[in-house]
Amino acid sequence: MTAPAAAVENEQRDSAVFDVERLRACFPILEREVRGHRLVYLDNAASAQRPEVVIDAVSDCYRTYYANAHRGVHALSEQSTDAYEAARAKVARFIGAPDSHEVVFTRGTTESLNLVAQSYGRRHLEPGDEVLLTEMEHHSNIVPWQLVCEQTGARVLAAPITDDGELDLDRFAGMLNERTRVVALAHVSNALGTVNDIPAVVELTRARSDAAVVVDGAQAVPHMAVDVAALGCDFYAFSGHKMYGPGGIGVLWGRRELLAAMPPYHGGGSMITRVTFERSEYMAPPQRFEAGTPAIAPAIGLGVAVEFLESTGLDPIERHEQELLSHTMEVLNDLPWVRVPGHASNAGSARAAVVSLVIDGAHPHDVATILDEQGIAIRAGHHCAQPLMDRLGVPATVRASFGLYNTHEEVDLLVSGLHEVRRIFG
Amino acid sequence: MSDLRDLYQQVILDHYRSPRNFGVLDPATACAEGHNPLCGDKIKIYLRMDGDRVDGATFEGVGCAISTASASLMTEAVRGLERPQADALIASFLALMTGDGNGAAAVDLGKLEVLSGVKDYPVRIKCATLAWHALRAALEGGDSEAVTTE
Ligand SMILES: Cc1ncc(COP(=O)(O)O)c(C=O)c1O
Fold it and tell me: Which of ligand 1's atoms lies nearest the C-alpha of A108?
């Protein structure tokens, strides 16, 4: 076989693996028009859209077999329970969890992090203890720790980032000590796209403290293959709605022995073995942490979203999104009136396809309105990361965040939208 | 794009680029802060009252074109008004934004009419009204302590 023929074959194989137009056709909402333009959806970090298979799975559950899970001996309850537990097994396999009992269904990343802060943190934190975060955290990985610190007398510290938007690992290491009980950080920053080196963080943490490492994976799971065993962390949290799944469902993965030693987060039905007015006995994880009737259909939909991601392939998805990111950075580099704070121009660092930018003389809010007029959905604001905005010295940014269905053409539409902003604001 | 032209009229862009009455008013008799939690924008209004008359008004803060221009135009419009006139101006402006015809005719809004395009952009109405809510709070006895200590 000659070399060019091999190249062509490779190309064909790649396009067979990742055909963006075919994928777009799986997402009904992408056909929609907004203000007379075809929707250009670049707000995936806030919430992604769902493929038809996920919508159908949720609808099929309600149409054909829905009943409460774990609470009936009748046929529908059995079928719902089976589907709910099958979804748990799919999620476990998807993130490389050794055991599906380590997968707790929650309402989302926020609830997952609050669960860890209360059930793990409250047990392990004492006055003077430290919870070490980073400057790039989402509010949902800050406020739960502040709450538990108020309750326990521990304190929250934040490891600094560099001007390039990277976690400063040396200074992070310098802040670890025997009082550090929890290290909590994002796998991928929702505002900057920075991919933190979790194995390195875990190694530094283990060498200097007994702290549990809690990873906020909300922005990682949709964009790259995640293997919690390989990461080496203790807890990993994420949301269904950011990974093409339904809203109202999320996951907390935790090491089996840690979960087993934790008290419940909420009390109620489905989490006890026996209740008297004197005391109650709790079920083993994960049921211990799933009090009340869970989001059954959304959990089933999440299982289907996981299958959709797996069949598309996380590696091809990552490759495609990285191409979109390079394309975006290249074109933005040519616009002297656009700045991308916290994004090193000398690449090399790992970034997910999230770009936070500011335009000279135009507030992000106005940029969002002008882009919206052209059917382009981006997010303007502080992205629930006010400490990060303070660190970067900007009140807000315009954030374009890509998903597997975005195209190079959409990057170009974004850029022409930015030119329109420039024309108005001059 | 004609709609955007209505929204971002030259007067608005001009007040955004060169806001009038921008900065701390010293001495001031009242101040109040407005906060838009959606975007994190904050605006602080300073007032100097001479009896019942607004002797001076300034503002501070970082905001979008709409909130900055609205605050800038507002400080111009409110200056020299007696309290009842100022209250009526606020009511009329808020009515203009919410498209509520009842309060609208009460006061001639003059230059402030350039902001009428905002009502076609519902998510931006809060930007335009931010300063006005703060003004109302300041008139209703904002914290003069906070001002004097600054
Ligand atoms: C990095 C990160 N952490 C946590 C969250 C909170 O997720 P949720 O709102 O789904 O609970 C988000 C998204 O809002 C996020 O981007």
Answer: 11
User: Which residues have C-beta within 8 Å of that of residue A170, sequence separation ≥ 6?
Assistant: none
- Please judge whether B65 and A420 are an interchain contact, meaning their C-beta atoms are less than 8 angstroms apart: no
In whole angstroms, what is the distance from residue B141 CA to residue B25 CA?
16
pTM for the whole thing?
0.92
Q: Atom 12 in ligand 1: which residue has the minimum CA distance?
A: A218
CA distance B51 to chain A (A): 37
CA nearest B63 in A: which residue? Answer: A363
What chain A holds in terms of domains, given with CATH numbers, is 3-31+313-425 (3.90.1150.10), 55-310 (3.40.640.10)
Backbone angles phi, psi at A397, to 5 degrees: -135, 170
Q: Is A233 a catalytic residue?
A: no
Query: What is the domain-level CATH number for residue B141?
Result: 3.90.1010.10
Residues 6+ apart with CB under 8 A from B37: none
Domain that includes residue B33, residue range: 2-146
CB under 8 Å to A251, separation ≥6 — which residues? A91, A95, A103, A104, A105, A106, A112, A236, A237, A238, A239, A240, A302
> How sure is the predictor about A142, in pLDDT bands with cuts at 50, 70 and 90?
very high
pLDDT tens-digit readout, B70-114:
999 999 999 999 999 999 999 999 999 987 766 555 688 999 999
Residues in B touching A380 (Cβ below 8 Å): 39
DSSP state of B51: T
How far apart (Å, rounded) are the C-alpha atoms in residues A194 and B32?
A: 38
**Helical (H) or strand (E) element with A119:** none
Phi-psi region of A208 (alpha: psi -120 to 50; beta: other; left: phi over 0): alpha
